[in-house]
């Protein structure tokens, strides 16, 4: 697991005030609860994940589908279904209180994020962007070890279900909500659990696992250091941290969305 902690994606975006880093621990606990067959813990973590952000639905849905069509563990089916139902009811009640409608804003935002036809990209350009971002944010060493981990997992039947579940979780939000993926590179954050597990499966094959992990870490740092340095130098909050008296039209055009989303003080 350690090599993934040295990628630009984890180092940089874990410090950014977005939902992905907050959701991450809940997803890890969901995977642990599912692996250890702990339905009540799975229910609690699933409900928390669903209430944090939209992607929290994906691992719970995939677990439910896995169980419905494969092992049919009734306890897992029952508790994941309860988490989805209760989480959805609470979200709709919140929508009603905040917006006055159960579904209007909810469906409007969802349909906008799914719709890709009006956006300035083609499927080929979109996929090329994902590949480029993956190489930059994860680094080739992690991508290669992860790919080898997938192969070993299915060849030797090691953690296949967990790897498949984490992969489906990471890809679901990216492929379903293509708009948000196009504009927000940190959507790749949802692939961290998959990259960590598959890399772990690969490293487990070595006699000296710690040494192999250190080597992957060093290669990751060397190959991604330039990108991480440039990424860390991007500090728009310094440029956009203005007092109300400085809130000119130019400031509004350039920094309005950033200021309102990231800053503690919201200018009205």
Keywords:
268 residues, disordered C terminus, 14 helices, mainly alpha
Question: What can you tell me about this protein's structure?
Answer:
Helices cover 74% and strands 0% of the residues. By secondary structure, the protein is mostly helical.
- Total strands: the figure is 0
Given the structure, what is the number of helices?
14
User: Main sheet?
Assistant: none
Structural class: mainly alpha
**Percentage of residues in helical conformation:** over 70%
Low-confidence parts: 259-268
Terminus-to-terminus distance: 44 Å
The Rg value, from CA coordinates, equals 20 Å
What average pLDDT do the residues reach?
A: 83
Shape: globular
Task: Tell me the fraction of residues in β-strands, as a range.
Answer: under 5%
What is the chain-wise order of helices and strands?
HHHHHHHHHHHHHH
């Amino acid at each position: 697991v350690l090599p993934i902690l040295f990628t630009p994606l984890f180092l940089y975006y874990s410090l950014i005030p977005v939902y992905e880093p907050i959701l991450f621990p809940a997803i890890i606990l969901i995977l642990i609860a599912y692996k250890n067959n702990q339905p009540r813990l799975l229910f609690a973590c699933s409900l928390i994940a669903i209430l944090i952000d939209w992607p929290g639905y994906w691992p719970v849905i995939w677990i439910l589908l896995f169980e419905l069509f494969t092992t049919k563990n009734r306890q897992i089916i029952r508790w994941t279904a309860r988490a989805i139902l209760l989480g959805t009811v609470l979200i709709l009640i919140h929508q009603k209180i905040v917006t006055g409608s159960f579904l209007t804003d909810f469906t409007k935002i969802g349909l906008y994020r799914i719709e890709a036809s009006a956006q300035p990209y083609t499927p080929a350009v979109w996929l090329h962007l994902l590949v480029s971002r993956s190489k930059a944010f994860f680094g080739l060493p992690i991508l290669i070890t992860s790919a080898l981990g997938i192969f070993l997992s299915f060849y030797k039947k090691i953690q296949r279900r967990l790897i498949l579940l984490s992969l489906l979780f990471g890809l679901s939000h990216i492929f379903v909500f293509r708009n948000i993926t196009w504009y927000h590179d940190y959507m790749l954050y949802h692939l961290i659990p998959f990259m960590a597990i598959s890399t772990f499966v690969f490293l487990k094959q070595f006699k000296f696992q710690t040494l192999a992990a250190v080597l992957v870490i060093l290669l990751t740092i060397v190959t991604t250091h330039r990108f991480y340095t440039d990424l860390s130098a991007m500090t728009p909050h310094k440029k956009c941290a203005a007092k109300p008296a400085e809130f000119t039209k130019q400031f509004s055009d350039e920094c309005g969305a950033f200021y309102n989303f990231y800053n503690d003080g919201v200018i009205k």
